[in-house]
Description:
Layout: H1 4-18, E1 28-30, E2 39-41, H2 43-51, H3 55-64, E3 72-78, E4 82-87, H4 89-101, E5 115-119, H5 134-149, E6 153-157, H6 165-177, H7 200-216, H8 218-232, H9 236-259, H10 270-273, H11 277-286, E7 291-293, E8 296-299, E9 313-316, H12 324-338, E10 343-349, H13 353-365, E11 374-380, E12 383-384, H14 401-419, H15 424-444, E13 452-453, H16 456-459, H17 467-486, H18 502-512, H19 514-523, H20 527-547, H21 556-580
Parallel strand pairs: 5-6, 5-10, 10-11, 12-13
Antiparallel strand pairs: 1-2, 2-4, 3-4, 7-8, 8-9
Amino acid sequence: MKKIINLITEELAEAFEGAGYDRSLARVTLSNRPDLCEYQCNGAMAGAKTYRKAPIVIANDVVSKLTDSEYIEDIKAVNPGFINMKLRKERLASYLNDMREDGELGIEKTKAPEMLLLDYGGPNVAKPLHVGHLRSAIIGESIKRIARKMGHKVLGDIHLGDWGYQMGLIITELKVRKPELPYFDEAYKGEYPSEAPFTISELEEIYPAASARAKEDEAYRENALHATYLLQNGHRGYMAVWKHIMHVSVSDLKKNYSNLHVEFDLWKGEADAQEFIPDMIERLKKEGYAHFDEGALVIDVQEESDTKEVPPCMVQKSDGASLYGTTDLATLVQRMRDYKPDKIVYIVDKRQELHFVQVFRAAKKTGIVPEETALKFLGFGTMNGKDGKPFKTREGGVMRLENLIGEIEDEMYKKITDNRTVEEEEARHTAKLVGLSAIKYGDLSNQASKDYVFDVDRFTSFEGNTGPYILYTIVRIKSILSKYRSAGACLSGLEIKEAGNESEKALMLEAAKYNEIMETAYEELAPHKICAYIYELANAFNRFYHETKILTEENEEMKRSYIALLILTKEILESCIDVLGFEAPERM
């Protein structure tokens, strides 16, 4: 379906043209003064210089051509040249009924689907997920769902940190603790055990212990570096240990991400790119893209338009070792070969922006990524505590993600059981759903690039701009519909009629914005736009609810119209929270 704002724009463009002005001036926007009008156009002021007329003269000329409008009920030219408009109530009702009949609630899917690859998540294996991993997962998952909603093909890649020095540290520490294992016996020729010689809990303890020891013991550090070298050169025993690390870690990561309603299509990592590095480096040297600078192999990426220095992209250290830049370029080689994406979006901490500027420029300059393929960096800000510093535990440590989720769920459970008597199992299930909404909405309602304060008390509130408030609104609508059904009425065959009061029309206008908001959220990769929208939609519904006797309305046709509008509102809210990555319970 066409967006309602586009239908108004088309009609206004005809009026501009009919009055002798350029159609492009008919740009309609939502009013920034809803007390005066619903839509506005400032095109008369934009055209004043071109046509050498006062803006109000142009505005009046255009308004005079709209005496018999299909969509606009009330139109006025207002000094110094605004065109203020209100939508016809019958056209608004008709538009909403069309949305209800459309399987996608009127979303105008893209006519040119793209293949998108989203790089988000990025945890290191053998380490527990902590709050620092939250934003990438939540933002990336939402963008993936929004893109699919708009008709694009999307692959989400977790891009694991599964290679390098950390693996050498784990192997070295395991060898110290369990030297008898066959992985460390160079004479061993048999099959290695299928079961890992450690649990996830043991693995998560091994890495920090090894890391701390390596900082104090130079010989130990050298052993870890050598183990890393042997692993990366295919040492049979160490490769077997690495596979165990991967299996145990990935199983645990999948469980934890599942609790966040985050799913990845690809579980690739740095290790998957290693096979592409030798040929890539050889080509870069052979074709003159890379050169040696103080022993290191680099690609110059500085451009004439740069106002600040952009250092070369280093692809090989002087000792021949690879770096993050090497792996990221090799990963692009693999992605272009395997998936041929039209666009690759990296959802990463904004402090890594310079690194990705270097990598993107190197990839385009060397032809690793063709010019027509878009590379986009979506940098996110820091999740901070109330003190304005990165979120920590009460003891000052980095909080594990599962502990944060547990704390939020416990807080929601307490609020749910304090308010009413409810079965334990239902209360726990509801607390889980509402807790997830608190976490995700609390994050996504902020613009991704900005730092924000994670305020547990505010995010878990049932009032204000929060996830629980949105869910409470959905549950309230479900309750009304349930009572309507219990009275013997049917929810099918209903039709939305013209609005009978201002709060009803305000709710209808908000509902009509759905497809426009979803399109904007995709184009700008901005889930916070959806959060802002459903907060306004929920507010509009609650105003309507408090001002209208819905179930006790005596006019049966009007009551049926109210119920039809509630059904559409609920479906829009549910569609929006689905792309944000959470869902509503049946009761709260």
